[in-house]
Amino acid sequence: MFDAKMPEAWRVLRIQSELVDGIEQLIKIKGAVTVFGSARTPEEHPYYAAAETLGRLMAEAGVPVITGGGPGIMEAANKGAKDAGGVSIGLNITLPMEQAPNPYQTISLTFRYFFVRKLMFVKHAVGFVIMPGGFGTLDELFEALTLVQTGKVASFPIVLVNREYWAGLVDWLKNRMLADGNINLEDMALVQVVDTPEQAADIIKAHLVARNAGSS
To answer: Cβ(88)–Cβ(65) under 8 Å?
Structure first.
C-alpha cells in the first residue's frame, strides 16, 4: 500500500527489505508452479474443487505450489498442496480490505508492494496455472505472457483451466489481436487451454521432465 507520508529514501529501504526477505525465504524453492484465480470463489464451487485437485497433484509430484495466499482459488490450491504433504506457499498482500492469509500455507510471506510480490511469483516458477478469476488474475496472466514473449524469463507453460470460461478471451486474442497483426501466430502458442486440473498438472510435469533432461 502506498504511504504518502513516508520519505522516498525510506520507501526504497522498505522495498529492499521486502526483496531481501522474499529471496531469503524462498531461496531453497526450486521449480514451483504458481496458481492464480479468483479470491471470491466459494468453497462449494466446482472451481474451488478443481484448484484443490491441482494443488494435490502438484504436491504428489513433488512440485511446490505458490499462490497469492488469500481465499478462494488461492486457498483451494494451498489446501490441496498442504493436505498432500507438499510445500504450500502463500505470497500475501496488504490490502485496504484486509485480506487474511489462508490457513493452508507451509511458507507464508506478506508483501506491501505488488511489484515485489509479482517478482516472487515469477522467480521460482516453472509454470503458471490460471484458474477462472477477475482483474488481478488477468493482470498476472498478461504479465507472464509478456515476460515469456520478450524472453525476460525462461519460457514456461502458461495454462488456462476451464475452456468454457476462457473461450471468449482466447477468441478475442485470435480474431482481433492476432488478426490485426498486434501479436504473431507463435505468440498464441504461449497459452495452453485445458478443461481439467489433471490436464494442467500433466503439462507442468511434462515441462519439468523436459527441462531436467535438458540440464542433465
So the answer is: yes
Spatial contact of 95 and 62, defined as CB atoms under 8 Å apart? no
> In 3D, which of 67, 134, 141 has the Cα closest to residue 104?
67
Asked whether the whole model's pTM tops 0.85, one would answer yes
Domain 31-215: assigned CATH number: 3.40.50.450
Beta bridge partners of 203: none
Q: Are the beta carbons of 56 and 156 closer than 8 angstroms?
A: no
Domain boundaries, the chain: 31-215
Q: What is the pLDDT of residues 144-190, one digit of tens each?
A: 999 999 999 999 999 999 999 999 999 999 999 999 999 999 999 99
CA distance 88 to 75: 10
Q: Are 204 and 58 in contact (CB under 8 A)?
A: yes
Sign of the C-alpha dihedral, residues 53, 56, 62, 63? Answer: positive
SS3 161: strand
Maximum Cα interatomic distance, the chain, rounded to a whole number of Å: 52
Q: State the first-to-last Cα distance of the chain, in angstroms, to the nearest integer.
A: 43
DSSP result, 89-127: EEEEE--TT-PPPPS--SEEEEES-HHHHHHHHHHTEEE
